[in-house]
Amino acid sequence: MPFPHHLQRPLAILTLVTCSFVLNMFTNRVSLYQEITYRVNYSLSSPLLEFVSALS
Prior knowledge:
Distance between the termini: 76 Å
Number of helices: 1
Structural class: mainly alpha
Radius of gyration: 24 Å
Order of helices and strands: H
Helix content: over 70%
Shape: rod-shaped
C-alpha cells in the first residue's frame, strides 16, 4: 500500500531529520570517546614521563 501523496514530503523530511540527528549524536559520541581516551592517556602518561625525566 503506497503512502498518500500529501504525506510523502513530511515523511521524507522527518526521516532525513531523524537520520541526521542520529548521525550527529553518533559522531558526538565518538569525539567524546576520543576526548576521554586522550585525557585518560595523558593523565596516565604524564606522571610516567615526569618519572622518566627525573631518572635521566
